[in-house]
Amino acid sequence: MKTGLIGAMREEILLLKKDIQHSKTEQFGSREFYSGTLNDHELVMCLSGWGKVAAASTATTLINHYQVDQLVFIGLAGSVQPHLNIGDIVVGNQLIQHDVDLSRLEGFPKVESPFWKTFEFNVFPDSGKKALSAVDNFILNLKNRQYPHINSDYAPQVHVGAIGTGDQFIASKEGKVRINERFPQILCTEMEGAAIAQVSADYQLPCTVIRVISDNADEEAHHSFSKFLFEDISQISIEIAKLLLS
């Protein structure tokens, strides 16, 4: 199985480049794609950039040019639920575009694919199980102190649930309330996952999204996000990716 691995920022995935064997770099448009093998697993990795359009463009190239069999996204997200803390890990079982609102089109004549009537995409059960297994193994390795490059105080909780996507960096109480009122099942919010899930659904391919909580999507979000981005995320996301591809 060939995996397309995507991250929105270089801090989230590009450290993995040094572990890719038989590495080859190609450029399509403004993006570089790194292909090779990791743990005898075929891999193509790309930095997408922020937002749904960037993520969808990257996913489409991975599918159409590299013919990947599954898409994986690992990165940061803001918590919109009080029981999620900074550093916790969310394994998505559903991806929701929280900024899409077609409610005014109720009663509109039925349309056929490729028009989606809902922008909530469920993760394939097998993909969800593999993602959760990889994260559980990561937690076990943390407890066994197998990652000296990760802060020994790091002890995240793992959550399985819905991840919200929108072209907004949520950084206010009002923004969180707006999401919670429409989609109370959403655990955290980011800017790419559900766009990749929609592309995957178009092509009927499995999609995995794993997010590490970097902030509480409140007025302190910018400071918390920046601190977590530059101090912690690289090693965490890389180790999870390795386990997912093992």
Structure description:
The chain is of the alpha/beta class. 33% of the residues lie in helices and 29% in strands. The chain is built from seven helices and ten strands. The chain has helices at 10-13, 52-64, 125-143, 173-182, 193-203, 221-231, 233-244, and strands spanning 3-7, 21-28, 31-38, 41-47, 70-79, 89-97, 120-122, 158-165, 186-190, 207-215. A five-stranded mixed barrel has the order 5-9-8-6-10, surrounded by five helices. A hairpin with a 2-residue loop joins strand 2 and strand 3. Helix 2 packs parallel to helix 5 and helix 3 crosses helix 7. The longest helix has 19 residues, at 125-143. It is globular. The N and C termini lie close together (12 Å). The mean pLDDT is 89.
What's the topology here?
Blueprint: E1 3-7, H1 10-13, E2 21-28, E3 31-38, E4 41-47, H2 52-64, E5 70-79, E6 89-97, E7 120-122, H3 125-143, E8 158-165, H4 173-182, E9 186-190, H5 193-203, E10 207-215, H6 221-231, H7 233-244
Parallel strand pairs: 1-4, 1-5, 5-10, 6-8, 8-9
Antiparallel strand pairs: 2-3, 3-4, 5-9, 6-7, 6-10
Strand order, largest beta sheet: 5-9-8-6-10
Please outline the major beta sheet.
5 strands, mixed, barrel
Radius of gyration: 17 Å
Total strands? 10
Q: How confident is the prediction overall: mean pLDDT?
A: 89
Secondary-structure element order, as H and E?
Answer: EHEEEHEEEHEHEHEHH
- Helix segment count? 7
- How many angstroms does the end-to-end distance come to? 12 Å
Identify low-pLDDT runs: none
Helical fraction equals: 25-40%
What overall geometry do the principal axes of the alpha carbons give?
Answer: globular
Which strand-content bin applies to the residues?
25-35%
The computed structural class is: alpha/beta
